[in-house]
Amino acid sequence: MGGAGPAVPPEVGAERLRVGVLASQGDFAAHVRMLAQLGAESMEVRTPEQVESLDALVIPGGESTTITKAIERDGLRPAIEAHHAAGKPIFGTCAGMIVLDRLHLGLLDATCRRNAFGRQIASFEADLEVEGVGPEPMRAVFIRAPWIEEHGPGVEVLARVDGHPVVVREGPVLAAAFHPELTDDSRLHALLMAMASGRGAGSPDAGGERKGAS
Ligand code: GLN
Q: Which pTM value belongs to this model?
């Protein structure tokens, strides 16, 4: 990879951002590597105490039912809710997007349709224009991916496939239906880090007061 790529260089400043990836199940290792390449102090997260120590959290792809059960089993839900209430960003990808929706953690005012693209085209790649990360299209790897079936007015749609939202943002919550950790394009991870440092584009109030919280 050579450190090149179109990512926005995060100006982490004196303190490195601590970004955790929920490691209950699924594709967490590639996220941890990508975040480290962007200069974050990235780590696998399995306990409430670890969640409490973070500036930003990634919920990776995998199997949404398994991840949701693991969150309950490991007592992570209150810590994730507190993280969200403090305005700290959360990035859910694929199964992680499902885990954030109204029927699961309820941190994204949206309902996801699982395996939405059907069994015949379970996995595919597409070049997407994603609002807020620059004009260059993003290569997106979809694996038995969901889409956003319905969402509330506070949810901004940043990218669509066939009219269906596949990248969305609501305040500190960012979600993508695909697997951004499987390419060299780290712009969504860079956006997450920008949101964590209070520099995220859009949603001006999101995250602005997080440093003072608790
Ligand atoms: N189909 C999976 C689910 O519904 C998500 C697939 C993925 O994360 N790649 O949980």
A: 0.88
Give the Cα separation of 161 and 179 in Å (integer): 14
Catalytic residue set? 94, 179, 181
Domain that holds residue 50: 18-200
Decide whether any atom of ligand 1 lies within 6 Å of the 144 Cβ: yes
CA of 65, closest atom in ligand 1: 10
Assign residue 46 the CATH number of its domain.
Answer: 3.40.50.880
Q: Indicate if ligand 1 lies below 6 Å from the C-beta of 167.
A: no
pLDDT in tens, 173-183: 999 999 999 99
| Dist. CA 205 → ligand 1 center (Å) | 31
Atom of ligand 1 nearest to the CA of 93: 8
How many Å apart are CA 72 and CA 109, to the nearest integer? Answer: 20
Residue 177 and residue 97 in contact, taking contact as beta carbons nearer than 8 Å: yes
Does 42 map to a domain?
yes
Domain count, the chain: 1
